[in-house]
Amino acid sequence: MIYIKIFFRLEFSTLNFNGNYSTYRALEKCLRMFDHSCTPYAECRDVFQCPYFVGLLQNPTIPQHIIIGEVRRRQCGFSVANPAVCCSRKSLTDATLRNHRNLHLLPMDQCGIPWGFRIANGETSRINEAPWMALLFYQTAETIEFFCGGSLISERYVLSAAHCVLKTLIGVRLGEYDILSNEDCDQLTYYCNPPSQDFYIDTIVIPSSFDQKSDHINDIALIRLSGKADISRVNVRPICLPLEGNKNFQHEMFIISGWGSNKTGERSRFLMKAEVPMLPLSLCQKLYANFNLNSKHLCAGGKEEDSCGGDSGGPLTSKMYIGNMPRYTQYGIISFGPVSCGTLGMPGVYTNVVFYMKWILNNLEP
After folding, report:
1. Stated pTM of the model
2. Helix axes 64-74, 21-30, angle to 10 degrees
């Protein structure tokens, strides 16, 4: 255990931390020294020079262990006596997004708030743990079937993968949990959800450079619903989108969810979830040497629990704390992976949402 020198008292004269001194004492005793580099989207800075951590430390309502955990995950060394953390770079891109003419079309004050908070690898989720999940349904020769997933980002838009909209897509379902039941109820509380919401498609936008022969580049789609989703219901809520650039993705666990195939090859009737670790893109580039992977992609998984057939288009999310509220942000879109799902050492590949944020905002309409 390496103890950090008592330096917090030196900062009291310039920063008001509302008496959250016990957090600093815990940080002094619990932080461990480890060395890892930051992503190109972040720089290694003194913890007191990073606006994100200053905000955490100034808020006495945030639990102590949350702040300690955040510092541990992002620590990249020390700045003199203070811990140094990977801090998102403030750039022109960030300012452009924050001032974008269509930003008001994203419900930032209502996004990323689930009803339940039980996270476990490869387990069935409880209802409303991911109320932003969308099911895409298609017309087949005999019936209507669900093949892909997506995520609700506003009252009118669902985010998905481009290769999911090339089929005979006819509609989107929101607020679903058990696709074989007309009423979704929580077995612990006996609470039953409002009905799911079905919509036809108004318009679909995909990047002009998307190559239909290769589903792996620019694999992103915006689906405009035929009407406004009712996001006042507990089972239908939008996911947050990233506006500050990539987090420090190293040493992070992300959450994937969907109704895709399980280990036996059967589609799940219940919404499933799993935690997957983020991996360096350089590793994916070696494992998928025949594909042109670049900064438009993210790489995660490589464990037994992973995304599978039918999960395409669904979100890769991470939990953050804003105020004292857990908020989920989408950083990836499930794109493709190994032929045999859950192959150890073979991660899944995701479309990097951060890279496409300007494209998303440019294509939103009221």
Report:
1. 0.73
2. 40
